[in-house]
Design brief:
This protein has 271 residues and is of the alpha+beta class. The chain has helices at 2-17, 25-31, 40-45, 53-60, 67-90, 152-162, 168-189, 199-206, 213-218, 222-225, 238-249, 262-270, and strands at residues 50-51, 96-111, 133-151, 196-198, 235-237.
Length: 271
């Protein structure tokens, strides 16, 4: 019973130490980067579509290593942050303006009710003892604060224009953008006039005219592979297949007269 209680306590302690654990290792490393400021909700949500300039500077030049390396990182962070802010002000770097609510605080002298009793000032009666005072910030209200965030494409283009290679954290952040662009390029590469069609449908449509087509798709031959629809197994472009058949097999074979005998009908059903 004690071992089970100890294990449960250990799991609870680990959960407290990893309140924002994610299956994405790159994100786990990014949120552990020194001085990267994110709310609990932002940490739980994973990679955002945009970061503040301050967080981008820290992710691009993180504090990691010996003192001399950290000094260089601090210098590089400052240089990058100045460049980002100047570009946003000049209008050459696209940025989104957002707002959030922040607490308004001020220093006040308040009773320190947690102070040891021996430090209290005695009164005439025990109930009149007064605790010592302490200076601390006290929330007196809230205010809306505006700030800027930079999206993936804008920051990637900014780094490229400056000749700066993205860091490990920034490359992980940019990965969804690059994957989306690659998928879009594949779609754009296929001419709009081509008709995607399943292998069986193509054989039914062209097989009688080109007897060798079915075996060419079954192997498949290299020219048939080139006619495949990217990312869709068993699909081909009809127009590409037909053009290859004309080039390789010449004129279409004459269509055979339909055999209406019982044996011919049974043969077609068996096919």
């Amino acid at each position: 019973m004690t071992d089970r209680t100890d294990r449960e306590a250990l799991r609870g302690a680990l959960a407290l130490k990893r309140p924002h654990a994610s299956a994405d290792v790159a994100w786990n490393k990014a949120i552990r980067t020194p001085w990267v400021k994110l709310s609990a909700e932002e940490r739980d949500a994973g990679w955002p579509d945009a970061f503040t300039p301050e967080n981008l500077a820290r992710l691009q030049h993180p504090y990691e290593g010996i003192d001399s390396e950290n000094k260089r990182a601090k210098r590089d962070q400052g240089a990058l942050l100045d460049g980002l802010r100047a570009s946003i002000e000049a209008g050459t770097l696209p940025a989104l303006e957002r707002s959030r609510m922040e607490d308004v605080t001020e220093w006040r002298t308040v009773p320190n009710w947690n102070a040891p009793r021996k430090h209290w000032t005695p009164g005439f009666y025990g109930d009149d003892d007064r605790p010592p005072t302490v200076n601390q910030r006290v929330k007196i209200g809230e205010r809306a604060v505006t700030f800027f965030v930079i999206e993936r494409a804008a920051f990637r283009d900014f780094l490229a224009a400056q000749g700066i290679e993205p860091s490990e954290h920034i490359r992980a952040w940019l990965r969804p953008l690059e994957q989306a662009e690659a998928a879009h390029q594949e779609e754009a590469a296929a001419p709009a006039t081509l008709t995607p069609m399943k292998r069986k449908a193509i054989i039914e449509r062209l097989g009688r005219r080109y007897d060798a087509l079915e075996s060419a798709l079954d192997r498949p031959e290299e020219w048939a592979k080139a006619c495949r629809v990217p990312g869709r197994w068993g699909w081909y472009y009809l127009e590409s297949i037909e053009a290859e058949c004309r080039a390789r097999y010449g004129a279409a074979a004459p269509a055979h007269a339909a055999d209406l005998s019982p044996a011919g009908q049974l043969h077609r059903i068996g096919r």
